[in-house]
Amino acid sequence: MQTILETNSVHKTKTQLEILEDKRTKCLVYTRVMGYHRPVESFNIGKKGEHKQRQHFEEK
Questions:
Q1: pLDDT exceeding 70 applies to what percent of the chain?
Q2: Are the CB atoms for 30 and 39 separated by under 8 Å?
Q3: Do 33 and 40 touch, CB atoms closer than 8 A?
Q4: Confidence category of residue 6, pLDDT binned at 50, 70, 90
Q5: Is residue 43 scored above 80 in pLDDT?
Q6: CA atoms within 13 A of residue 23's CA, in its CB half-sphere
Q7: Distance CA 47, CA 29 (A)
Q8: Sequence-separated (6 or more) residues with CB below 8 Å from residue 37
Q9: What percent of the chain has a predicted confidence (pLDDT) above 90?
Q10: Name one GO molecular function term (predicted).
Q11: Contact at 8 Å (CB) between 51 and 31?
């Protein structure tokens, strides 16, 4: 029974995103490379893969 409810809630979420599609804007992610900032979307396939594997941390 839980699977059906979870599936329905996921379906509702998709529908809400589809409804608001015209209000969404593209988000550019920048990262610092060799002392300057570049958008990740301009990376080649290998560099995009490296970026996804990075581990982020917060300094205390």
A1: 78
A2: yes
A3: no
A4: low
A5: yes
A6: 5
A7: 14
A8: 30, 31
A9: 15
A10: ribonucleoside-triphosphate reductase (thioredoxin) activity
A11: yes
Instruction: Give the pair of three-digit tokens for residue 37.
Output: 């900032």
Token pair belonging to 54? 């990075």
Please provide the distance, in angstroms rounded to a whole number, between the alpha carbons at the two ends of the chain: 43
d(CA 24, CA 50): 27
pTM strictly above 0.85 = no
Q: Which of 4, 50, 11, 8 is nearest to 31 (CA)?
A: 50
Q: The tokens 């599609």 sit on which residue?
A: 21
Q: How far apart are CA 21 and CA 41, in angstroms?
A: 21
CA dist., res. 51 & res. 53, Å (int): 5
